[in-house]
């Protein structure tokens, strides 16, 4: 009986994995095919397969590739990070930014601009500064959480405390920045893929690969399965629950910090993708959900990027921030899954 | 899973549809400056006596000359009546400060923003403590405004923080007038702005002179362009370095108007407001000239940054026609005030130096190839 259920679960997992990969491929192809230049789709594919390529279609394609891949990787990374965070916080409402990463990144950027305004012309310095800020936020949250007894509960509360302190601080600083740059500050760190470059794809890919590698090297999926049920279960298996939560949180922060630095703040995916993965897989086994959530997050972000492109062309308003569009794409899907699983 | 696709499609269609409906039904601001001083009253009476079949029209002409109070209609379509000329004025935007000083009303200005730096007199008066700073352009401080006890606040209807101020200022009995400001879509709306402010203070003659001067500057450019008969250049205008996002000026903004009047083709013409573009759009449009606001950053650093982006593939970059506007040059371009004629001349100089001469170098930096 138990074996039968196991076989059934594995079947369902493999099916949903293949299904989500196929969907992702389809979405990615659509994403490559459309864009604001209205380049004919025929030209796109002729160029893609190296048959016939004009100069202009080549540079457009290079950019489209960078943009679509950035969206895809951002989604994948945020989903992975979201799954990790929800497990170590033992809270389904946790999301990647709950560890105080976004507001500290913003604060770091604001300070940098105040000290040296020319930094806005150095994309990579800005990325490094945002990343350092995000990781500093994580360290502060962890320190606070350790002082409070390092439980999943204290981690969330510390994260909220750090987020509040620094979002207040960053807004004060950005108010001052405004007078230096003469531009409204809300444009900073607004998650958008419209300025994506090929280097961004390399940064995101290497981060995603490294972190996934570490997750499996440490055997995190199995350990997290036990962790969700309580510290005592982890101890029974011979692992250290505190170390486990610190390692997972560090990985999640590295992942999220990179996306904050490269793309900006993109909401919803980190929160919803893990849920969607669990609902589709029908289980919360991390060996399944970690992998599945990567593809689901990637699909969500890529389709949100497609919608952003369509809106930019049709509404005459220009580019929409990705974070605004992700929830429009993802929320109805999540709602559908919730209703469906409720009926079951 | 069967209806999944269908549900998603319906959801997307509804959302996009909803957006359009929201767009079309959104209230539009009415802009009419119609405070007619003299008007003709026409009464038509039709008398049809039975024996003679003829129509008789009686026209009564009635002329009323209105002295005080002065009544204006502002950019929000509100009619505002002034019993007496305001004595203490707060300006919420650099362009408004420029208009007030150009109209010779500088002695009535008691509050300006931290961005107001023209005419240079403003900076001196602020330093001497005769004019107070009431915060930034996007962050006016209500308390500071109220503490100045003004009898008139002038804001820009295109700037949300200014609109948000309205009730709090009116609550204490202070009049607040909105001009189009950054929401102006062409030169005529800037003229209207100048005329509206002039009317409040009864200095219409000065306004007429300012408008005449601007008109002359613009006519100088358009005439020369017409004589030279040059091919129009495609222009990309950016509000900051690319890392800031490719924010440009759409076809219904005064910056868009300035670019087309100076003989350029604004590539963001078909967008509305201040859109964010993506690299793909820019590459496909392939601009001949790129104009970037430097935001005080290092010039060579910005050019190097552009070199690393797809913008390097454009004709403008390849031919070394990327221009950075800093300080005064940028202020002239982005302020819908009395210097808008100079903005047209500036852009014309950037686009067609062979006709208008090179732009002034310290404030306009041209990249080196």
UniProtKB/TrEMBL annotation, chain A:
This is Iron ABC transporter permease. The keyword Cell membrane applies. The chain crosses the membrane at residues 13-34, 65-85, 97-117, 124-147, 153-177, 197-219, 243-276, 288-308, 320-339. CDD domains: TM_ABC_iron-siderophores_like (cd06550). Belongs to the binding-protein-dependent transport system permease family. FecCD subfamily. It comes from Ignisphaera aggregans. Keywords: Cell membrane, Membrane, Transmembrane, Transmembrane helix, Transport. GO terms for molecular function: transmembrane transporter activity. The keyword Cell membrane applies. It is a multi-pass membrane protein. It is found in: Cell membrane. It comes from the Archaea.
